[in-house]
Every structure is written in C-alpha cells, then in structure tokens.
C-alpha cells in the first residue's frame, strides 16, 4: 500500500486547485511545498489583487494564450473560465469584472482567493507539508509508472499518482525555480526552450539612450511587432497602454509583445527586432490630416498634442526631421508625409527583454505534445500529471495564466484521483 493516493508537488495556483480536486474524490492526498507558506506568487498576482480569470468567450480566451492556448480546448470543455467564477461564488467569494474582462475579488485582495483555497483544502483533510522541498521523482521503468518521490531531507514518499505543479522560472523568489523540469525529463519528456514572456523590452534606440521620453506613458496606442523591417510582415499587434523607461519599453502593450520579440530574435538570430507604434489608432490618416488642415495656422506640437503627450509630439517632429515650432501650413509635401508616417508607424527596436526571472510568465516548458490534453497525464509515465506554468503554455497578463493554471490544475487533480484508484 502506498503512503498516499495522490501527491501534489507545489502549492501555487495550479497545485492548490489540483489538491482540492484530487481530495474531493475521496483520495488520501498530500500537498508538498518547499516554501514556509502557500501561494506566494498568487498573492503577488494582479498587483496583489489577483486577477483570477477573464470573462470572455472560449475562443477569445484561447487567442489570449499565445503559448499553446489550443492545447486547452479539451480541458476547457470540462472546466472553463465561467466554472472558475462559479467555483469562487460557491465558496462565498464575490468577484467583479474590470476593463478587458478581467475578474478580481471584490475585496481587491489576493489574500481572499488564497485563504479560500487553503480553507477548502484544510476542510478536505489534506495532509500539507511545508518547508519540505522535493528532490526527485521515482519511476518504475518496467511498468512505466510513477512510484513516489524523495525529499531534499532524504525521505521517500510513495503514491499512485503524482501531480507536478511546481511552476516555471519567472520570479524565482516565490519558489518557482524550475525544479520540476528535471523530473519531467527523467520521465522522458522534452522541455521546450524557456524564454521570458510578459517582460519589459530592452532597447538601444536613441530615444532611450538620450532619455528623450523617459517616464512618458502613452494611452491606448497600437504596437506592432514586425517580422523584419517595419512594414514587412506583422507578427502581432496590441492596442493598449505603454511606457518609456530608462532601459527600453514597458506597459501592457509591450509586455504582450515581449514573448513574440524573444521568439523572433531566437528564430532569426537577428540582433534587433523592429516594432512600431500607431500613436492614434482610433483615427484614420485622412481624419487626422483633415483635423490638422483645419488648424493649419497652429504650431505642429499644438496640433499633435490632442493625440499624444507634448514630449512625444516633440520627438515625433525630431524623428521626422521637422521643426516642431513651425505652423502646419508651412510644411512642404515631403515633411507632411514624414510627419504622418512617424505618427502612424513610430519606429522602435528591441534587443530582447529583461531576463526570465524578471518577466511575469515563463515561455516554454514541458512539451504539450507529450501530455494528454484531456487528462494532463504524461504520455510516457502512468500516474504522472502536469499543470500550471510548468507546461509549455503562456498567456498574456489579464488573468489568462491563472486561468490556465486553475483549469489544468482542476483536470490534473480529478484524473490523478481517478487513476489512483485503478
Ligand atoms: C508579479 C506577477 C504578477 C502576476 N499577475 C498575474 C495576473 O494578474 N493574472 C494572471 O493570470 N497571471 C498572473 N501572473 C502569472 C501567474 O501568477 C502564474 O502563471 C501562476 O500563478 C502559475 O501558477 P503555478 O501553480 O504553475 O506556479 P506557482 O504559483 O509558481 O507555484 C509553484 C509552487 O511550487 C513550489 N515548488 C517549486 N519547486 C518545488 C520543490 N522542489 N518542492 C516543493 N515545492 C516546490 C513553489 O514554491 C511554488 O509554491 C503573475 C505573475 C507574477 C510573477
């Protein structure tokens, strides 16, 4: 007889949900965590308010998970974002919807979410071990079954099913130090290259090195990542806010572009990735030209100020090689063209992003090709299950990563429990 039916390694977003779902099936469940506390990253998420999920359609949810969102189809058929909302409502947690469908607890405290999950786990009689890092997994090579684990302290614990919920590599201070990749490899799994996503971009552009726009933020602009020079072929574009920093670019639109920039640089071996900003995406060029014509006596910066901050307007003129103090009526044709081209496709370059440790989410991870999308079980090792950021799944900020963690955690917990009785 094994020590437990199910062991969950990692008490973060996905592991807590996996534990609840395994224990609800009546299994003898152990949750083992290396930190002295559970859910450290969950507490940081959403600026400490925990963006638990996103109220959107299934299709839209999947498009907001650019790293293998499609792998989640089958899991979402069993438990989706509406089920997450219902789960918390049933547990007595009221959620509220904010912009872009983002769902938060009405308390505005991630602690509400964490405490709720931990209370359910305690009510289910789960054994919880903290400050107990797992060292390695034990597999039976002949039967291709998981057998148990050993802890760093040297103890062996056996189980019929083991769920790996040990997270990725982003924000290692929270406990996500990537320990589980080696355990997955040992079972025969491939680890897709790890890279930072949802991370600020680094740049050597003149506007950054000369601090021309440091601290300036732009509202609701459209940022495009190009496959080659600007205008070649768009990889992705995002209309949101962004900010100029001392090392490059940040803010929601940039974070969403960052994984694509890193992938492009890796795939092409190029040193730079080109991006551009449409500084007024809600107006056509014709509409803007018309507005400028109607104010043709005014100085350029005064006209441009209605669409962007003044410092940005000055830099637009600088890049377009036009005197910003000129009235619009004095521009020659070539200057008019240069001005509007800069407004609509303001050029940027990025040399990469901040490292994985500083990004919000890990790109890459355990290959989804080798995991059953309906159950989250390993295709190589019976009784071995995966969930959360450890998998090669990454979403944009906006609740998509916690959704992926809760969905895969729920499925892994249920099937690990059912498998453990077999
Ligand atoms: C600052 C920040 C803000 C974020 N905000 C949002 C947001 O608003 N919305 C959103 O959807 N996503 C957000 N994310 C991403 C999201 O929080 C994560 O994708 C998600 O929490 C990952 O859950 P997980 O269970 O896979 O991993 P984690 O939550 O990292 O949990 C892994 C756990 O495993 C434990 N562990 C690791 N190794 C071992 C070992 N050897 N033995 C025992 N235990 C081990 C760790 O200590 C940790 O507790 C944010 C991330 C960060 C860093």
UniProtKB/TrEMBL annotation:
Entry's transmembrane regions: none
InterPro entries from the UniProt entry: BaiN-like, BaiN-like_dom_sf, FAD/NAD-bd_sf, RsdA/BaiN/AoA(So)-like_dom, RsdA/BaiN/AoA(So)_Rossmann
Highest rank taxon of the organism: Bacteria
Gene3D superfamilies: FAD/NAD(P)-binding domain, HI0933 insert domain-like, Translation factors
Domain RsdA/BaiN/AoA(So)-like Rossmann fold-like: 5-414
Pfam families xrefs: HI0933_like, HI0933_like_1st
Cofactor needs: FAD
Domain (RsdA/BaiN/AoA(So)-like insert): residue spans on this chain: 195-361
Keyword entries, A-Z: FAD, Flavoprotein
Entry protein name: NAD(P)/FAD-dependent oxidoreductase
């Amino acid at each position: 007889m094994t020590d437990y039916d199910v062991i969950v390694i990692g008490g973060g977003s996905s592991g807590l949900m996996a534990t609840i779902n395994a224990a609800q099936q009546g299994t003898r469940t152990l949750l083992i965590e290396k930190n002295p506390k559970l859910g450290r990253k969950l507490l940081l998420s959403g600026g400490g308010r925990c963006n638990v999920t996103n109220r959107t359609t299934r299709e839209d949810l999947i498009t907001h998970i650019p790293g293998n969102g499609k792998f989640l189809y089958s899991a979402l058929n069993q438990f989706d974002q509406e089920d997450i909302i219902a789960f918390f409502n049933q547990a007595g947690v009221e959620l509220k919807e904010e912009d872009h469908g983002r769902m938060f607890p009405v308390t505005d405290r991630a602690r509400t979410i964490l405490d709720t999950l931990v209370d359910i786990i305690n009510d289910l009689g789960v054994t919880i071990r903290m400050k107990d890092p797992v060292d390695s997994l034990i597999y039976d090579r002949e039967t291709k079954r998981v057998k148990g684990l050993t802890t760093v302290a040297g103890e062996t614990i056996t189980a019929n099913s083991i769920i790996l919920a040990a997270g990725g590599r982003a924000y290692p201070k929270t406990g996500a130090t990537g320990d589980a990749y080696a355990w997955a490899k040992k079972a025969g799994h491939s680890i897709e290259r790890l890279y930072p996503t949802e991370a600020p971009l680094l740049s050597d552009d003149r506007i950054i090195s000369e601090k021309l726009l440091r601290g300036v933020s732009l509202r609701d602009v459209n940022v495009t990542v190009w496959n080659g020079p600007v205008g070649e072929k768009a990889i992705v574009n995002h209309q949101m806010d962004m900010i100029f920093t001392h090392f490059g670019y940040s803010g929601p639109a940039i974070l969403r572009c960052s994984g694509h920039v890193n992938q492009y640089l890796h795939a092409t071996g190029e040193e730079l990735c080109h991006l551009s900003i449409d500084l007024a995406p809600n107006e056509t060029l014709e509409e803007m030209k018309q507005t400028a014509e109607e104010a043709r006596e005014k100085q350029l910066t005064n006209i441009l100020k209605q669409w962007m901050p003044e410092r940005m307007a000055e830099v637009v003129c600088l890049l377009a090689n036009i005197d910003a103090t000129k009235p619009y009526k004095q521009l020659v044709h070539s200057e008019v063209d240069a001005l509007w081209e800069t407004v609509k496709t303001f050029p940027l370059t990025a040399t990469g992003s901040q490292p994985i440790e500083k990004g919000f989410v890990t790109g890459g991870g355990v290959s989804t090709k080798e995991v059953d999308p309906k159950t989250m079980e390993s295709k190589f090792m019976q009784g071995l299950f995966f969930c959360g950021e450890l998998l090669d799944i990454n979403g944009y900020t906006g609740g998509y990563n916690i959704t992926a963690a809760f969905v895969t955690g729920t499925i892994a917990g249920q099937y690990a429990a059912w498998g453990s009785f077999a």
